[in-house]
Automatic annotation (TrEMBL):
Protein name: Peptidase M48 domain-containing protein
Signal sequence segment: none
Coiled-coil annotated spans: none
Cofactors named for this entry: Zn(2+)
Membrane topology type: Multi-pass membrane protein
The keyword Nucleotide-binding belongs to this UniProt entry's keyword annotation: no
One Pfam assignment: Peptidase_M48
Coarse class of the protein's main subcellular location: membrane
Keyword annotations: Cell membrane, Hydrolase, Membrane, Metal-binding, Metalloprotease, Protease, Transmembrane, Transmembrane helix, Zinc
Compartments where found: Cell membrane
């Protein structure tokens, strides 16, 4: 467990426990007891009894929080250790944690929350025993009571999180762009998949979804078809684009691999574990975002729970990834049995090469520069002209998969005992063949209609996304069009000028005193006078430097760029890709990073007088701002935060205008 998690999970309840112990000791202090006088709110027995109860309550709840955190850590460590034995043990351990961890998480939240309420209420009672009820005491009590009210609300709210904690590990629906095909739509595909399932002794999927983009995969999670039905049960995803470039044996090996996840012991893992685990990270992220929007006291009570959940996920994640790789290699063996090891090895190499070759035509399609009613046919026509595929770069890649982590392709081929020779490479890199394309089409009653419907649906999404994107660009471009004049404040100029005058006056005073006292000039006196004169010159030069900077605006922020007397040309905002801000004492530095290939302007003033520093190797210009800035001709005060926001908005607007001009 990292230091931050340790601090939240154990440091917070420990601090609350010791603070509650200190509160319990304070009850016996003599100065707490006061004699009741007229006009005073003195000590009351009720307040004293309340403080005793609250102090002991703070100790009790903080101890409960420590016990709950410790039990969660022990449960997680033992479960992970058990999960490393086998996949079956992993499922059993995760199931146990799924049942117990939500109760522990709510227990930690409630315990620390109530401990905070106890220690704060104690201080309210302590203020009551201090004496005269002054206006300050009343305001302080009201403020603390408001904090306690928000904490009580948070604690009560946390008690209702139990149901959500159970939902924390519920499977999430997979959002898929595709179409579910029945046996009427694809009789040959269904017949063939049943044959492959029987050959590999696997479960026949309940649904087959055809799509365009993602690779082959199976899932037991519910599938929500975009603008379509919600499918439950086991689903096989069949991508038309990839299948069009692979022969029957290669596709059989890939489907055999995927159906291998629905055979033997892997069936339980896939059906009952993978879906639950896949939704865990999203749920934890949701909780983390919910905590981030809370106040700091609420985060103090909620952060230990969040860090427990995140630590639990990280501990299981490494073990789950290890078993995922074992499962993938076992599924590879199933795919090899269903077809052949050579066919599966060739499909692995060819699949990665197809990913690279798909990039260019798909980019044209998503940018609305590829007009087609059948994207699969267009892809085939485009790639057929490209000749052989480059499969050499595919060996170290990991194939993309929606739910699993695959080992590198080279490792998978080595496990298949298939030599990486010229025969395999030649087979995997062969050009697109008409026979493969026509075989894929024969699996469906009307492949053209299915591909056209999928293409039309995706084109409609692309068009809608483009319209929304254009509207957003137009909205950004309409803002930040007026010029903003930015000037430096004279604060440092007057400071340096006063220091220069004081140094010169000090040197004159020392010289006058030495003459008045008829003191003979010695080495130490000369050093003092010389040092003061030198300091006066340095501060005088600094004041002159600041004067040259503040006598005219530092720069003008326009719709196109940053214009300054210190720059040879405007710094174009559309060429800025990132902005950062940092401060050192009273100096603020704004870093603007320009895009690769852009030639920025040069600085036209000397080093002592410049506020712009260019660092070409980092593609960065640094704007140094000493002592704050002013805006407009009237030189109104402008905070650094306002300047940063203005720069960010002007950069976004300039980028939006450039994108609109290029579209």
């Amino acid at each position: 467990m990292d230091k931050k998690s340790l601090l939240y999970c154990f440091g917070v309840p420990l601090i609350l426990f010791f603070y509650a112990c200190w509160q319990n000791i304070r009850i016996n202090e003599v100065d707490v007891y006061q004699v009741t006088q007229y006009g005073f709110v003195g000590h009351s027995v009720f307040a004293d009894m309340s403080r005793q109860i609250l102090a002991k309550g703070g100790m009790l709840f903080s101890l409960l929080g420590l016990i709950a955190s410790s039990s969660a850590v022990i449960l997680c460590v033992l479960s992970v250790r058990k999960a490393r034995i086998s996949a079956e043990k992993l499922i059993a351990a995760f199931t146990l944690c799924r049942k117990l961890l939500p109760f522990i998480m709510v227990g930690v939240m409630a315990s620390i929350g109530f401990a905070l309420v106890c220690v704060l209420l104690y201080e309210v009672c302590w203020i009551y025993t201090l004496g005269r009820a002054s206006a300050f005491n009343i305001k302080l009590v009201i403020f603390v009571l408001l904090i306690i009210g928000s904490l009580v609300f948070m604690v009560l709210k946390s008690l209702f999180l139990l149901k959500r904690c159970f939902a924390l590990f519920e499977p999430q629906d997979m959002q898929v762009h595709g179409a579910a095909v029945s046996e009427t739509d694809a009789p040959e595909l269904w017949r063939w998949v049943r044959e492959l399932a029987q050959r590999g002794q696997a479960i026949v999927p309940d649904n087959i979804v055809v799509g365009l983009f993602e690779g082959f995969y199976v899932t037991a999670s519910p599938v929500q078809i975009e603008n379509g039905a919600r499918l439950t049960g086991n689903t096989l995803y069949f991508p038309l684009s990839y299948a069009a470039f692979m022969n029957k044996d290669e596709v059989a090996a890939v489907i055999g691999h995927e159906l291998g996840h629905f055979s033997g012991n892997d069936t339980v893992y896939t059906l009952h574990f993978a879906g639950l685990y896949a939704g865990m990270e999203n749920s934890l992220d949701y909780f983390y975002r919910d905590v981030a929007s809370s106040g700091w006291l609420e985060r103090l009570a909620l952060n230990p729970t969040i860090h427990l959940g995140l630590w639990f996920y990280r501990q299981f994640h490494e073990t789950v990834n290890g078993w995922n790789r074992v499962r993938e290699l076992a599924a590879d063996a199933a795919g090899a049995r269903t077809s052949s090891p050579q066919a599966l090895a060739a499909s692995l190499l060819r699949f990665s090469a197809l990913n690279e070759r798909f990039n260019a035509p798909m980019e044209l399609f998503f940018n609305r520069k590829l007009e087609t009613h059948d994207l699969v046919h267009s892809l085939f026509a485009s790639l057929r002209e490209g000749g052989r595929f480059d499969v050499a770069a595919s060996l170290e890649q990991e194939l993309a998969h929606p739910t699993d982590s695959h080992p590198p392709t080279r490792v998978r081929i080595e496990q298949l005992n298939v030599p990486l020779d010229e025969t395999l490479l030649a087979r995997a890199s062969r050009p697109a063949e008409e026979a493969d394309y026509q075989w894929m089409r024969s699996l469906f009653r009307d492949a053209s209609a299915i591909s056209a419907a999928l293409t039309a649906g995706m084109a409609s999404n692309v068009e809608a996304h483009h319209d929304a994107y254009q509207a957003e660009l137009e909205n950004l471009a309409a803002h930040s069009t007026e010029s903003v004049v930015v000037s430096l404040r004279k604060k440092n100029f007057w400071l340096f000028l006063v220091l220069a005058v004081l140094c010169v006056a000090g040197a004159g005073l020392v010289l006058a005193l030495s003459i008045q006292w008829n003191a003979t000039a010695n080495a130490s006196m000369e050093k003092i006078i010389f040092g003061l004169v030198a300091g006066g010159l340095i501060f005088g030069l600094a004041s002159w430097t600041m004067y040259t900077r503040v006598r005219q605006p530092l720069f003008t922020l326009t719709a196109q760029g940053i214009e300054s007397y210190q720059l040879s040309a405007p710094l174009l905002l559309a060429e800025i890709e990132n902005i950062d801000i940092r401060s050192v004492n009273e100096w603020v530095f704004i870093d603007l990073y320009w895009r690769e290939g852009y030639q920025p302007p040069t600085c036209t003033v000397g080093r002592l007088f410049r506020s712009f520093t260019f660092e070409p190797k980092k593609r960065k210009v640094v704007i140094s701002l000493p002592g704050g800035v002013l805006k407009g001709v009237q030189r109104e005060k402008m905070s650094i935060e306002e300047l940063y926001v203005a720069l960010h908005e002007y950069i976004q607007a300039a980028w939006a205008r450039r994108e609109l001009n290029q579209s």
